[in-house]
Design a protein that fits this description.
The protein is of the alpha/beta class. The protein has helices at about 65-70, 95, 110-120, 125-130, 145-155, 170-175, 195-200, 205-215, 235-245, 265-270, 285-295; strands spanning about 5-15, 25-30, 50-55, 75, 80-85, 105, 110, 130-135, 160-165, 185, 220-225, 255-260, 295. The protein has eleven helices and 13 strands.
Length: about 300
């Protein structure tokens, strides 16, 4: 398959985003992730494959999907449609027959041309706001070949390109991407290695090493921490992470991102259990204090 024939699996494209890098941006969310953060807000990005989902609030309880499912994978449990994924044959009959849109497909393939065309439609917004295109996930490096092709194409079309990444890929891959990325947005979730392994499924040795390498590369970047109650919200933990980032020479910003419990419906949509369903978000006044204490923003010229 030629490089220009590659297609990537994307969950959605969010246009006119103000929170994914400088200015107004078009954000492309890749499917597939190499971490399994227990609090994750986007479980639809875990798997690299297209998935079937069901949205409770859209279901009108007509029963058509139960009648039409050829494998008998669907049933009603506690007034909800349950899908036996061991029986489901992935024929998408439920999606085709559900005129309410409760059954739906998660993930769609795009070519680099498809995504560049979408970005081109928004070019005027980028020019007026200093924005551009952000590639996010999931973890974009999971689809490395397509990611490299897309970043190169966007760069050649003179878009400002940002990459959101957890830095859990080999440095040689990031090194290949450096010429095509204007701004990196990196995650620092937990500093302690064993705690990181417990909460995300893997240790953070490569992540921290890559952050140091990225700092030495001279590329513009920021570091962000999702502040999750019971995981990394103690002031001592945040102080250690803020200190770690501040000792890097070229980090432009350290930013705290608030946890919110709104992802519960996504887990139900996918038939998954969410361990943080009952966890409350940090009160706004307390989170504001954390931001004032531990965030920083440096305007490097």
């Amino acid at each position: 398959m030629a490089m220009n024939d590659l297609r990537g699996m994307v969950t959605h494209v969010q246009r006119m985003s103000l929170h994914d890098g400088p200015g107004m941006r078009t954000t492309i969310f890749f499917k597939g992730c190499n971490l399994r953060c227990k609090w994750c807000h986007n479980p639809e990005t875990f798997s690299l494959n297209q998935e079937l989902g069901w949205i409770r609030n859209k279901c009108i309880r007509c029963g058509v999907c139960l009648e039409k499912c050829p494998s008998g994978a669907l049933s009603v449990q506690d007034d909800e449609i349950a899908r036996n994924r061991n029986v489901c044959i992935g024929c998408h009959t439920c999606v085709e027959e559900c005129y309410a849109g409760a059954h739906h497909l998660i993930g769609k393939t795009y070519s680099t041309e498809d995504l560049c065309n979408i970005a081109e439609e928004d070019r005027g917004f980028f020019e007026n706001s200093g924005g551009g295109v952000t590639v996010s996930g999931g973890e974009p490096t999971v689809q490395y070949s397509f990611l490299k092709e897309l970043l190169k194409a966007l760069h050649e079309k003179d878009f400002h390109v940002a990459l959101q990444t957890n830095l859990k890929a080999s440095w040689d891959k990031y090194e290949e991407l450096l010429p095509y990325v204007d701004y990196f947005m990196c995650d620092l979730k937990v500093l302690d290695k064993e705690a990181h392994r417990y909460w995300t499924g893997t240790d953070n040795e490569l992540i921290l090493a890559n952050m140091v390498r990225l700092d030495a590369s001279g590329k513009r970047y920021c570091v962000r921490t999702p502040v999750v109650p019971g995981v990394n919200d103690r002031k001592e933990q945040l102080r250690q992470m803020s200190d770690f980032v501040s000792k890097l020479k070229h980090a432009e910003k350290y930013e705290l991102i608030p946890f919110h419990p709104l992802a519960s419906y996504k887990y139900k949509d996918l038939g998954m259990k969410y361990e943080f369903e009952t966890v409350k978000e940090i009160p706004k006044n307390e989170f504001k204090e954390l931001k004032q204490t531990f965030e920083f923003n440096i305007n490097y010229q």
